[in-house]
Design goal:
The chain has a single domain, classed as Alpha-Beta Complex (Cyclic Phosphodiesterase, Chain: A), CATH 3.90.1140.10. The protein has four helices and eight strands. With 176 residues, it is of the alpha+beta class. Strands 1, 2, 3, 4, 5, 6, 7 and 8 form an eight-stranded antiparallel sheet that branches. Helices cover 34% and strands 36% of the residues. α2 packs antiparallel against α3.
């Protein structure tokens, strides 16, 4: 099974990014991101032992700390994703490192290694799974409405991915 460790912003910034997602959905022709909490994935893993993954995630939640991210730009993973991009700083790098070091005790690297330190492009998807024309429209609209911002990170979540249910929150933890 595929799992991820994700960071959540405070409620105010989450609501702001959800507003951006709602503006982009009709432009790009995809509502895929409407049902997903805006987040930054810091570890993607594979394991057959969900209970071990849950227990290690609980331990991880006590090691990660609150922090602040600076969303400074927008980007595209061609052809399917438009995203907000944070500045890669020590908070994000350390969070990614700690998450992977912890979770890989009970799992294997997932998502083709795209979320391991130094092979990772931190991002927050705001439009996904669209046709090429939708990607162009979403990027154009986002470039018109986006302004850089700072956001507090105050929660971590363990999520599970399955083909027919791609974003399942298994647990959400407040960070200290």
């Amino acid at each position: 099974m595929d799992y991820a460790i994700v960071l959540y912003m405070n409620d105010e910034k989450t609501a702001m990014v959800n507003g951006i997602i709602r503006e982009l959905a009709p432009e790009c022709g995809s509502d895929y991101c409407l049902g997903i909490v805006p987040h930054i994935t810091i570890s993607a893993i594979i394991s057959d032992d969900e209970e071990a993954v849950k227990e290690e995630a609980r331990k991880l939640s006590k090691r990660l700390t609150r922090g602040e991210i600076k969303i400074a730009s927008i980007g595209v993973f061609n052809p399917l994703v438009v995203f907000l991009a944070p500045i890669v700083d020590s908070y994000l790098i350390e969070s990614c490192q700690i998450a992977n070091d912890t979770m890989l005790k009970v799992s294997e690297i997932g998502n083709q290694g795209r979320y391991i330190p130094y092979s990772w492009v931190p991002h927050m998807a705001v439009a996904m799974k669209m046709e090429k024309e939708g990607l162009y429209k979403a990027f154009k609209k986002l470039s018109e409405i986006f302004s850089p911002f700072c956001a507090g990170i105050d929660k971590m979540a363990l999520t599970k991915w399955e083909e027919d249910n791609p974003y399942q929150e298994l647990a959400v933890y407040d960070l200290k």
